[in-house]
Design goal:
It is built from six helices and two strands; from the N terminus they run H-H-H-H-H-E-E-H. The chain is mainly alpha-helical. The chain has a two-stranded antiparallel ribbon. Strand 1 and strand 2 form a beta hairpin.
Length: 165
């Protein structure tokens, strides 16, 4: 039952991130709490505490990328919460599946970007920053699409582990 709840909360987080580029804190807390309950049901209280510690470790690891603007705050929190749900044995498959899903999502967003932006990216003439894209010649090109809603990739990676590898 806890696994189904975690999956449902992950789906809500993914939809929210895609729709409004925001993952509500309440959903993140529900993913973490039901994830820890799931681990306790499957492996006991000690494993539940270890699962919580893994989530804290993932959040700590993503703190620097968040501060640098490389990762959204909601994405960092959701990754930590999902790590609580997958536990120690699922952490590596979760990370790999999330990376693959994120790459696929980035390709889709790239394909949907304006032709000028795709051409400049493919040619390698862009200097990327938080504020958009500039070509090597300093002329302005079409702005990059809004950031990748990586919460959807995190949810997909966690679902892959939770449903069964």
């Amino acid at each position: 039952m806890a696994t189904l709840l975690v999956l449902a909360f992950l789906a809500v987080a993914a939809v929210s991130d895609v729709a409004v580029r925001r993952i509500p804190n309440a959903i993140v807390l529900l993913v973490a709490a039901t994830g820890v309950v799931r681990i306790v049901q499957l492996a006991g209280a000690v494993s539940g505490v270890a699962s919580l510690a893994i989530g804290v470790g993932v959040l700590a690891a993503l703190l620097a990328p968040w501060r640098l603007g490389l990762v959204g705050g909601g994405d960092a929190k959701l990754a930590a919460a999902a790590a609580c749900a997958v536990g120690s044995s699922g952490l590596l498959p979760f990370a790999l599946a999330t990376a693959l899903a994120g790459g696929a999502l980035a390709v889709v967003i790239w394909v949907l970007a304006p032709v000028e932006t795709r051409t400049a990216i493919a040619a390698g003439f862009l200097s990327l920053s938080r504020w958009g894209a500039r070509s090597a010649g300093a002329s302005r090109v079409a702005p990059l699409p809004r950031r990748v809603p990586f919460g959807a990739a995190i949810a997909a990676g966690a679902a892959y582990v939770l449903v069964g590898r």
